[in-house]
Every structure is written in C-alpha cells, then in structure tokens.
Amino acid sequence: xxxxxxxxxxxxxxxxxxxxxxxxxxxxxxxxxxxxxxxxxxxxxxxxxxxxxxxxxxxxxxxxxxxxxxxxxxxxxxxxxxxxxxxxxxxxxxxxxxxxxxxxxxxxxxxxxxxxxxxxxxxxxxxxxxxxxxxxxxxxxxxxxxxxxxxxxxxxxxxxxxxxxxxxxxxxxxxxxxxxxxxxxxxxxxxxxxxxxxxxxxxxxxxxxxxxxxxxxxxxxxxxxxxxxxxxxxxxxxxxxxxxxxxxxxxxxxxxxxxxx
Length: 261
Description:
Blueprint: H1 6-34, H2 41-69, H3 77-102, H4 110-145, H5 148-151, H6 157-167, H7 169-172, H8 176-205, H9 208-231, H10 234-260
Helix pairs in contact: 1-4, 1-8, 2-3, 2-4, 3-8, 3-9, 4-8, 8-9, 8-10, 9-10
C-alpha cells in the first residue's frame, strides 16, 4: 500500500472542516447574531428540502432519464453538463420555492432565507463530501499505521486485494485533490445561500420570473464548473465560480437595498 502523505491528510482534514464544521458553525453564528430575527427551523427546512428534492426526487428523475437515453447524455460532456445543471436547477429551486411558500410563509425574511441556504448547502456538503472524507481519513490512518491488513484479515484473499487496490488511490492521488473538494464546497454553499436569497425575493415580490432566473443561474453555474474544469485547471475553475457567486450576491443585495430606499 502506498502511504498517504501528510499533505494529503491535511487536505482531508481541511475538507472535513469545510463540509462538517463550517455549516454548523455558520448556523450557530447567524442564530446568535440575528437572535430574534431568525428561527433555527429555517436551517432544518433547508436541509430537509435538499434531501427530498435533490437526493430523492431528482435521483429518481435521473434514473428514468438515463434508462430512456442510455449513454447518449453521459458520453457527451457538454450535454451531460447542460442536463445535470438544468435538472439540479429545476428540482432544487422548485424545492426552495415550495419550502418558502408553504413552510416559511409566516417567518420568511432575508435573514431566514440566508439561514435556509446554509441548511440547504450545508446538508449537501455533509452528506456528499463530509461522510466520504471521514472514511478517507480513517482509511488513510489505517494505511499509514500498517493496521489495514489485519483489519481485512477476515476476508478472503481476492476480496482483500480488491479493497486494498481501491484504497491505494488515497496514497497515489495528488494532494491538491483533497483540498479541491473543500474549495468546491465553499463555492457550492455560497451559491445555495445566494439562490435562496433570490427565491426569497421571488416569493416576497411575487415575481415568478425570479424563480425562472434562479433555475437558469443554477444550471449555468453547475454546467459552467463542469465545462470549465475540463478546459482549465479545476482550482482556477472553482475560483471563477466563487468570484461569480460573490458578484451575483453583491448585485442582488445592492438591487434590493436600492429598491427599499
């Protein structure tokens, strides 16, 4: 087994902190900062909405589409990026709209919309990246300590070799890959918060066009990061995404502030 470098271990810890600790810490900070302006239930509504609309309904939809189209979509990176972005935008933005209209109608505010976004993006980070990186870190420590073969001794030789080959990638992957997953989550969570604010504006101002815009922007960002990562370095692609999301957030905030004056 190839030992896992210290740089890779630090990268795993970095991504774990971003995926598990940052969402919870952000929730606590916002609840304390805004006190009576927010309800912590907004965080959990966001989390539950993501699970229902993205992890259950959207995945059922993907299964049906891929059965009908075979490898037509998955074999074409441009088509796959476009389809994936549109599907994510449709299901997640619809989820946001439904949640805010039905479950947050009496508490909907800018602050609660932001806290909702933290819950929506936070649970995605926890379930998709956080749990994976807990396993990655634990297996890496077992590999470096030499305890992995003993742990696998109950399996037959063929199974042991298969598992060890799969886990060997932890020592052979470039260290920056483990940092990149955390950086990617920063961009994704910022996007979820920003789009949650946009849906809040759609509900507050009764503008269906803002809901449509949120689907388009979600699709654009999701498809864009896939295509950019295939053209330029993944790290640069994530930096572009983060800057674009921050710019979008500034535009929305300035527009809303100017409108209220």
